[in-house]
Design goal:
By secondary structure, the protein is an alpha/beta fold. The chain has 18 helices and eleven strands.
Length: about 400
């Protein structure tokens, strides 16, 4: 039931899987109708999956089984690769997006995706993988999931991409470049309607390719409307291990402020991406201007207090009791944010803050602020949202533009 994972099957299942593998390698010798019939019968006999339907695969990463096909003779088993970038916040929203695509495909009824992870290599990747294993261990433990199964730039991945591009280019001659054709199998869509259209494109490609089943790729992050549709499933998937990853939590009467410090990390980031932190006046007198003398504020940031002392000094000069949450690891800071019970404030473009806030079990009053200087990115921040999920709707979500 784990994304990007291996799943053990019993001996009768292994025998069926072995026979399927032999038949699959010899498809050119048999009519395609026989292959489809054999695949369906093998899939229909597989059992043992949890009811939440998170797809898993055998440890060999070769054979796929599917509980959802029990009521269908046409559902196709395909690999879905989640392209993971950056650090923990990005990765969580990217995995959530891939999971949402998988769940929507099950509703569509034509596809069932086995979720796999595709990483860039580097130190950030190694740190994020360890954090996922430790802090979301219910479904992402080292024993259950291989998060490093596929990596960009490896001969294995290059070969897989080249094969797919070749297959697509042979059946879509109207496309001038195979990479353009491959784009139809990459999900970056943000609405149900556009995702459904992509499913139609995928079905068309499969109908043309006959003997080849393509993989699909997701390169996006889950937005709030998509999260709302599957909030309960995602909340369960991302069960947080508080015992392993929490050190300190806010007081019940503390307002919690997250300062991302984009400009501290990359001074030229405003020109590159438009990310601009709120200045001291905006935070002290506008964002938190409603707080009165004596109220408590906890400040969380990836940077030491001396780097952001102008913010904490200004808040203290207003008579607020400010504590700077020092010395925490990334996951411990994440825990602190998601444990807020009073007001919770942070930049919408901090994926770390966004995920912690949206999946907090205690935060009921969340404010996302946005000071991005690029109009195309500012337009992606909702001004208001309609939440339908009962559990998700218990949060009051506000948006402040500067």
């Amino acid at each position: 039931m784990i994304p990007c994972a291996g799943y053990k099957v019993n001996k009768p299942q292994q025998l069926r899987i072995l026979v399927l593998a032999v038949v699959t390698t010899s498809l050119s010798l048999f009519p395609i109708i026989f292959y489809n019939f054999f695949l369906t019968q093998t899939v229909k006999s597989a059992t043992g999956f949890q009811s939440n339907g998170i797809m898993t695969t055998s440890s060999s990463s070769q054979t796929k089984v599917n509980r959802w096909a029990e009521n269908s003779t046409h559902i196709l088993q395909l690999d879905l690769f989640i392209f993971l970038t950056g650090r923990l916040g990005n990765n969580l929203l990217e995995i959530a997006y891939g999971k949402i695509i998988q769940l929507l495909a099950l509703e569509d009824g034509r596809f069932n995706f086995t979720i796999r992870c595709l990483w860039n290599t580097g130190m950030k990747t190694e740190i994020s993988v360890e954090e996922l294993h430790t802090c979301f261990s219910k479904y992402f433990s080292k024993e259950s999931v291989n998060l490093m199964e596929w990596q960009i730039g490896t001969p294995q991945w290059k070969k897989k991409v080249q094969e797919q591009n070749h297959q697509i280019s042979t059946v879509f001659p109207e496309w001038e470049h195979p990479m353009l054709a491959a784009e139809m199998l990459t999900f970056v869509d943000s609405t149900i309607e556009s995702i459904q259209s992509k499913f139609d494109h995928l079905a068309n490609a499969i109908n043309r390719m006959e003997h080849y089943l393509p993989f699909v790729l997701t390169k996006s992050m889950a937005n709030i409307p998509l999260i709302d549709r599957y909030y309960d499933e995602l909340h369960e998937l991302f069960t947080f291990n508080q015992h392993q990853c929490c050190r300190d939590t806010p007081d019940a009467d503390e307002t919690v402020l997250h300062i991302r410090g984009f400009e501290v990390e990359i001074p030229n980031i405003v020109n590159l991406f438009g990310f601009k932190d709120l200045n001291v006046h905006q935070i002290t007198y506008e964002l938190l201007g409603h707080l009165t003398e004596g109220e408590k504020v906890a400040v969380v940031s990836p940077w030491e207090e001396k780097v952001l002392a102008n913010y904490t000094d200004a808040l203290r000069n207003r008579g607020l009791h400010v504590r700077y949450v020092n010395g925490q690891t990334g996951p411990q800071g994440f825990c602190f944010l998601r444990s807020a019970t009073k007001g919770l404030y942070g930049d919408y473009f901090s994926t770390y803050f966004r995920f912690a806030a949206l999946f907090s079990d205690t935060a009921k009053n969340i404010t996302f602020f946005n000071n991005n200087q690029r109009s195309d990115l500012r337009s992606k921040v909702p001004t208001e949202i309609i939440i339908s999920n009962r559990n998700f709707s218990r949060k009051k979500i506000n948006f402040s533009f500067f």
